[in-house]
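Progress report, Aim 2. The chain analyzed during this reporting quarter is listed below.
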Amino acid sequence: MSVSPSAEFHDEVKAAFVDSVFHGDLTFNLGKLIPSRRLGPEEISRMRAIYVPRGDILSRAVAAARETGLVVLCANPGNGRRITAVNVAAALELTPEWLVIDEEDVHASLHCKKRRTYLLNLQESAPEVLPALGRELAGYVARLREAGSCLVVVATEHELGTLDLAVHPEIVKLRASDPREVFLAHLARRRSREESQAWAADDQINRILADASPQDAVRLTEHVHESGNRVPQEGVQEVLAAYYNWEKELESWFTITQATEQGYRRALLLSVAAMEGSSVTKVFAAADMLCAAVGIPYLPGRGLIGPGVDTHLQDVDAKYVNGQVKFTRPRYGVAVLDHVWEDRPFFKDHLTDWLRELRDDQPSTILLRLAMRHGLPDLVLETVQQWSRQDPERAVRMLTIAAMSDELGRAIRSRMYAWARNGNQESLHLVVAAVCGGPLADAFDRIAFTRLKHLAGRDSEQVEAAVIDALAKLVTRPRLRVPTAVEIVKWAESAGRARRTGLRAFVKLAALCSPEGRLVLMPYSTREETLIDTLADGWRATLRDHESADTAKKVAVAWLEEAVRGDTDGEVICQILAKAVRSSMDVGVLAPLIWHWARTAPDDGVDRESLCIALMRRIGEADRLTSDISLLSAYDVEETTEWDS
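Predicted structure tokens for the chain:
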């Protein structure tokens, strides 16, 4: 059994963009959490519009990147490091792309394409890889400059001190932007200039901004926007209450509901908070589950006696609208759960157990939010371990988002690495494989490949199938097509435990077709030199291996047919198979295969003979030991050698 997230989830995640400028209040949906690693023009334009640097910080950083190919933006998180990095790239008119360092292969993690600004946040890398990274930077920056690209490093002073640097980069120390300017810049994107100025001029708003961090200013903007009020006179009190997480209101509500008979009312409050947006039936069923879990009496007659649904919901400041239960106050559910989490530590285990049993995405979101807000990766990891047995698809969704988040990502990815290498829970291995074949790989390709490699070495047919399924998903994505092929062939040529999976994966992916019927791995032209060289190595490894050879030969025939029917450039297949020959043994495998294909094919008018002759000539020339011997004379032999004998 393999597990994989839905196509809708993958598309949702790829399309989602979270301002990686400042993380304010973490109210979100499952598909709206993951910052884009490769920013498009729209995202860059937005990040330029809301950027308000102090002094000459931006100009200094841009000048350093342009002149030396490397600049370090040094500050603690929350001082605008990310948005400054993106704006450096925008000012240089280079495409920004975030890097993440693989703990097993620092060099391979350092991408180098033309006209890029690579952005590297050291906070996302494991501390133990930083010295090796520092030693790589001098050579990496030299390669970048040759490609017309540069590197922007985001680091704290402590992280910078752990690098074993052989270069002395320009270090630009950042200062937090003016929170009032941040507030105005963000609000102006959603409201008119007049409305934005009116809110910024309000005395109560100004008192908050006087001591706010940039993140707080962004969060305040969100509350103003969500209130829907055009001017502060219409709803500033509600905005302030939401900004302070409804703290006073909740303290008062929990004070007046301390009596035992108020237990169901509290259970219903938590149920609405956990299931907001769901149907009445689901909300009240969740409340009953919580009552059963902690020993709270149910409603008399299980609801038959006493007031109806509207009254019960009014008791917890909620309402039933268009088939959904919602609070009457914005972001009130988030505040409820924060209050209970912080005020009642002895209730945390009951709360998390109950949330894990609720079969909706909303409770998953809440668990994620609690883990991110309070820095609790184990809350996610323990949930994923439980769900990997009970609800693997939901486990995949949660682990994907947590692994890609700023708040928990490094710790989650580290645990995934440990699970892949040393774990013994097969259901968990299947979940990790599915995560590595999902959106995670779009942002962290090296991270995904390393974990898949270790899973490939597990002694489990199910896990191997899950790894191959993940690779099949990755190879269909244009940016990951070549890296995935390179990774698989690396396994197939290794002496490690992943070799068998690499061989099987190559054969399966070589047979994989696009929806249009074209072989996915077949190069489009001879200009794809890296892919051609990689495929040559892959074919050589699989055709020489006793276990994979029979299947590989059948797939190779499909490649020959695609070439001879004009679906691809015949020169491509000639180059691949010629490069696959390194010895007479390889000739002994390929020559009979090609002869048999050309001589035993149906009489359908397709000219296979010309390609066969061209291939025989190229293969004969490729083998240094037999380069003076023509293989073409054997083509006229009436009794053709069986290619699969």
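The longest helix spans residues 130-146. The beta strands are 70-74, 95-99, 116-121, 150-155, 170-173, 318-321, 324-327. These observations will guide the mutagenesis work planned for the next reporting period.
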